[in-house]
From TrEMBL:
<dbReference type="InterPro" id="IPR038071">
    <property type="entry name" value="UROD/MetE-like_sf"/>
</dbReference>
<dbReference type="GO" id="GO:0032259">
    <property type="term" value="P:methylation"/>
</dbReference>
<keyword id="KW-0808">Transferase</keyword>
<keyword id="KW-0489">Methyltransferase</keyword>
<dbReference type="GO" id="GO:0008168">
    <property type="term" value="F:methyltransferase activity"/>
</dbReference>
<feature type="domain" description="Uroporphyrinogen decarboxylase (URO-D)">
    <location>
        <begin position="3"/>
        <end position="87"/>
    </location>
</feature>
<dbReference type="GO" id="GO:0004853">
    <property type="term" value="F:uroporphyrinogen decarboxylase activity"/>
</dbReference>
<dbReference type="Pfam" id="PF01208">
    <property type="entry name" value="URO-D"/>
</dbReference>
<protein>
    <submittedName>
        <fullName>METHYLTETRAHYDROFOLATE:HOMOCYSTEINE METHYLTRANSFERASE RELATED</fullName>
    </submittedName>
</protein>
<dbReference type="GO" id="GO:0006779">
    <property type="term" value="P:porphyrin-containing compound biosynthetic process"/>
</dbReference>
<dbReference type="InterPro" id="IPR000257">
    <property type="entry name" value="Uroporphyrinogen_deCOase"/>
</dbReference>
Length: 100
């Protein structure tokens, strides 16, 4: 898909895997975790973060919450979101040529 942009933000109602397929690998995506997940057990939060990141693919992804943190969200869950996000390992694509 040619858009002339570098990044497209996907609404949380758009499945990340489907959105990535439609956008292709040349455009970075901003993909969101529904903040309601932060009311879930910590393992469910971890699983959802990892699912979104995995579906976004190896190139260009900005991870965030849909509309920020909802009122009443447990602070432990917010801290866990950021701990999991920081713990993810990212790889940089290998250069195909010296001119890249």
């Amino acid at each position: 898909m040619r858009t002339g942009v570098d990044v497209i933000g996907l609404d949380w109602t758009v499945d990340m895997e489907d959105g990535r397929k439609r956008m292709g690998s040349e455009i970075s995506v901003q993909g969101k975790v529904d903040p309601a997940y932060l009311f879930s057990p910590l393992l469910a939060i971890t699983d959802e973060i990892q699912r979104v990141v995995r579906c976004a693919g190896p190139r260009g992804h900005i991870l965030n919450l849909v509309h920020g943190v909802l009122v009443g969200t447990p602070e432990e869950a917010v801290a866990h979101f950021f701990e999991v996000a920081r713990s993810l390992e990212f790889s940089t694509p290998q250069r195909k040529s010296k001119n890249w």
